[in-house]
Automatic annotation (TrEMBL), chain A:
Lineage summary: Bacteria, Pseudomonadati, Thermodesulfobacteriota, Desulfuromonadia, Geobacterales
UniProt KW Signal keyword: yes
Keywords: Signal
Protein name: Porin
Signal peptide annotation: 1-21
UniProtKB/TrEMBL annotation, chain B:
Annotated signal sequence range: 1-23
InterPro entries named among the record's database cross-references: Multihaem_cyt_sf (IPR036280)
PROSITE patterns named in the record: PROKAR_LIPOPROTEIN
Name of the protein this chain belongs to: Cytochrome C
Key words, A-Z: Signal
Length: 433, 156
């Protein structure tokens, strides 16, 4: 399936010439990067990757309810190799036909696409369908072949199917139940055994009043039988200008990592548990100013319930200013991550300002960290990015960045980037966008 | 094996057709295929234009207001209200951060958008050693089963 690459996707761009009365939108981003990599002890490399992203949407085909959607990218290296793989690569992110029914939000689609439904966040080559039912119910389902990674056929299973059913009670409550089955989706490299990946989950949204809202989900791993994660959020809006949220997340790694295909990093057999809780307070102080403070405590323990890294806290604040009809956007933030051991502790500060006049766009962005304990003999890192851009035509924007930084890995990190974005819209008779 | 696959596929298609033909299907008109009002860049505040409720989904317009917190926790909404997100977002928008295979980190791809809530700003190859240790669960969502070919070069 991987062979169905951008050239064929681009060939499909020619279709609109053949189809009458269809809305066509073609868009893309071309990115030239120029980076010098000089990690201590390694040869200096100059990498010049050129990456083309391209997408197309064809709406109102046939009886007006059929549409086609494509997106993908292709990269070639003009200098030294930019990845440890080939000096050119690409990926078709999605390419599917969809038929939307005029009633009940019913839709059928086929091809390569992403699904986000309850337990499932997947990319597959297959079919999907959904519809609202009478009385507040809704169903959706999908099935097909999961899209594997270049690395090999064991990275995903051979067949995947799943779906979600939901029930909405007025404007008060929505509950969902979802499931997923992936044949051979779990590969254990140490034993060579393949098992099925199976997940079920329940999700909830509840808004008892204008001021209170709760949402979240619990997912259960059927392959090893145990709760994979709980994730819940409570939102309070006591005043129009103040928002408060509380968050609770819990992941049991035996089950949460069950489907891992990178066991050197995410190893379900090692077990362990990550629990985190925290919250944020947002204050819309005045029309242009938003202030945000957040706190999170993370408790990571191993199989024997001992805390790893002593647990950590992450807290900080951010101020965002959006003014002059959103033309001017800027922000400053400070965050502190504090692990009990001193390793794993740092301060982070960031500030940016951007201005978009319609024709010209420019921004400055600075970020820096101070580590509590030296990393590769260095105590801090920073990066400065200057960006400028110009809308040459309504459909065409040229922009570029220059960034300079110093960090534990690189004494001098200088990077350049040039970006060309285009967006072309041609409307048939059914104007709607 | 392939027969089983084909069969299940057919079953799903048949199921889907049955569902859409079924009398229990809602009689309500579908959402428009695209949000009728053009919105510019910058985070939209649904409450500016919509009444208290977004009727088609039975949730307050407050719920979808793109606050900082909504953006940070968008996964909770995305997995319930895919059809609402699809009103304004093509999946290519999500692809800047969510992909099976990608080689440019979001903050480089969108280096001209410092106002966006993009993960991995700055020197992330160093910082990730700390963030990843403190809480690897968020990393797993994007790198656990997909988009991890680059990680393999160090995490063998």
């Amino acid at each position: 399936m991987k062979t169905l690459r951008l050239p064929s996707a681009l060939a499909l761009l020619l279709i609109p010439a053949l189809v009458h009365a269809a809305d066509f939108e073609g868009y893309g981003t071309s990115i030239f990067r120029l980076e010098q990599k000089a990690a201590p002890g390694f040869d200096k490399k100059t990498i010049i990757p050129f990456t083309q992203f391209a997408g197309a949407d064809l709406d109102q085909i046939a009886d007006g309810n059929l549409s086609l959607h494509l997106y993908g990218w292709e990269r070639v290296d003009l200098g030294d190799r930019s990845t440890s793989e080939k000096n050119s690569d690409g990926d078709l992110s999605y390419g599917f036909l969809a038929y939307r029914f005029p009633k009940a939000n019913a839709e059928v689609k086929g091809g390569r696409f992403f699904v986000n439904q309850g337990v499932a966040s997947e990319q597959l080559d297959g079919v999907g369908a959904r519809t609202d039912l009478a009385g507040g119910f809704g169903v959706s389902a999908f099935g097909g072949a999961p899209v594997k990674l270049d690395r090999g056929s064991n990275t995903k299973g051979d067949f995947i199917a799943g779906g979600r059913g939901s029930y909405r009670y007025g404007n008060l409550l929505e509950v969902g139940f979802s499931g997923l089955h992936e044949t051979g989706g779990i590969f254990d490299p140490t034993t060579g055994v393949k098992r099925d990946r199976e997940l079920i989950g329940g999700d909830l949204w509840c808004g008892p009043s204008r001021f209170v809202e709760v949402n979240g989900h619990t997912y259960y791993d059927m392959s090893r039988e145990g709760v994979a994660e709980h994730s819940y959020q409570l939102l309070l809006r006591p005043f129009k200008t103040i928002g408060v949220s509380g968050l609770y997340n819990q992941a049991d790694l035996v089950h949460f990592y069950a489907g891992s295909n990178l066991r050197s990093l995410f190893n379900p057999d090692q077990g362990g548990m990550v629990r985190s809780y925290g919250g944020t307070v947002t204050w819309y102080a005045a029309a242009p100013l938003e202030l945000n403070a957040d706190y999170r405590h993370i408790h990571r323990s191993d199989n024997f319930e001992t805390e790893l890294n002593g647990g950590s806290d992450r807290f900080g604040a951010e101020a965002r200013i959006t003014a002059l009809d959103k033309k001017l956007r800027s922000g400053v933030s400070y965050h502190r991550v504090s692990g009990a051991t001193g390793f794993n502790s740092y301060h982070e500060g960031r500030g940016y300002v951007m201005y978009d006049s319609g024709r010209y766009i420019g921004s400055l962005d600075a970020i820096g960290q101070i580590y509590q304990t030296r990393i590769y003999n260095s105590k801090n890192a920073f990066e400065l990015i200057a960006s400028t851009g110009m809308r040459i035509m309504p459909q065409l924007t040229l922009s570029g960045e220059l960034s300079y930084g110093q960090n534990p890995r690189l004494a001098d990190d200088l990077k350049g980037l040039v970006r060309l974005t285009f967006n072309y819209v041609a409307q048939g008779k059914g104007a709607k966008k | 094996m392939t027969r089983v696959k084909l069969l299940s596929l057919l079953l799903i298609i048949a199921g889907a057709l049955a569902i859409s033909a079924c009398a229990v299907v809602s009689k309500q008109a579908s959402l428009p295929s695209w949000h009728p009002e053009q919105l510019g860049e910058g985070r939209p505040d649904c409450t500016e234009c919509h009444e208290e409720q977004i009727k088609a989904v039975g949730k307050p317009s407050q719920t979808f207001k793109h606050t900082t917190e909504f953006v940070r926790q968008h996964r909770l909404y995305a997995s319930q209200d895919e059809k609402v997100c699809a009103l304004c977002h093509k999946f290519s928008f999500c692809n800047a951060c969510h992909a099976n295979e990608l080689e440019i980190k979001p903050s480089t791809f969108l280096g001209n958008r410092p106002d966006r809530e993009l993960p991995h700003r700055g020197d992330y190859l160093t910082l990730h050693m700390i963030d990843g240790k403190a809480d690897p669960t968020s990393c797993y969502r994007c790198h656990g089963r997909s988009n991890n070919e680059r990680c393999v070069s160090c995490h063998k």
